[in-house]
Write a structure and sequence with these properties.
The complex is a heterodimer of chains A (about 120) and B (about 110). Chain A has strands at about 5, 10-15, 20, 25, 35-40, 45-50, 60, 65-70, 75-80, 90-95, 105, 110-115. Chain A is an all-beta fold and about 120 residues long. In chain A, strands 2, 5, 6, 10, 11 and 12 form a 6-stranded mixed β-sheet that branches. Chain B contains no helices and 11 strands. Classes of the chains: A mainly beta (about 120), B mainly beta (about 110).
């Protein structure tokens, strides 16, 4: 069975600094897709960044980047120049894709950006 | 540009009551999903539908039924609500292209069963 583990229930960072959120996963599949979703207090689920396992290059979206280590089954999210609006719950998610994109989620990391 | 719309946003039920959560998407997606979110457990898949007329169980289907009414709509029914079903429920949809694309989520329904 595929699993996703986020070992940091809560984290805190000062505004303008950099923070890294950890995620590991377990699968026997060779091709799959990984995501980071952000859930602010509004409860809306917002896609932050995605990574396709067959791509070796780490994905980047503005201040957000990932460190994808396929052999180690690790997928961490780095947030640079943290802003107050980054305060949210962050979920790591995994899917093998195919006929449906059923997502398996980690338990989440609550990030607080301090002024 | 509505995306995925869920109703209601909040609901309080008494134990044993029934209700249906409604979900509709306007993106012409084939696949639709129902997840529940509980503290410390992330989101867990209840049921999904790969296409109109088909539904399949996810990780936590007990106590729920679903209907894929047409390509746009996917409803979740609680026949006899229990306190253990107190949760936030999310509907989502995604395009079925054989490779993964973004899943779009509704705004969630906070359900309390007393």
């Amino acid at each position: 069975a595929q699993t996703v583990t986020q070992s940091q229930p809560e984290m805190s960072v000062q505004e303008a600094e950099t923070v890294t959120l950890s995620c590991t996963y377990d699968t026997s599949e060779s091709n799959y897709y990984l995501f980071w979703y952000k859930q602010p207090p509004s409860r809306q689920m917002i896609l932050v960044i995605r990574q396709e396992a067959y791509k070796q290059q780490n994905a980047t979206e503005n201040r957000f980047s990932v460190n994808f280590q396929k052999a180690a089954k690790s997928f961490s999210l780095k947030i640079s120049d943290s802003q107050l609006g980054d305060t949210a719950m962050y979920f790591c998610a995994f899917t093998t894709g195919g006929a449906t994109n059923k997502l398996i989620f980690g338990t989440g990391t609550l990030l607080a950006v301090q002024p | 540009n509505a995306g995925v719309t869920q109703t209601p946003k909040f609901q309080v039920l008494k134990t044993g009551q029934s209700m249906t959560l409604q979900c509709a998407q306007d993106m012409n997606h084939n696949s639709m999903y129902w997840y529940r979110q509980d503290p410390g457990m992330g989101l867990r898949l209840i049921y999904y539908s790969a296409s109109e007329g088909t539904t399949d169980k996810g990780e936590v289907p007990n106590g729920y039924n679903v209907s894929r009414l047409n390509k746009r709509e996917f409803s979740l029914r609680l026949e006899s609500a229990a306190p253990s079903q107190t949760s936030v429920y999310f509907c989502a949809s995604s395009e079925d292209t054989g490779r993964s694309t973004e899943a779009f989520f509704g705004q969630g329904t906070r359900l309390t069963v007393v």
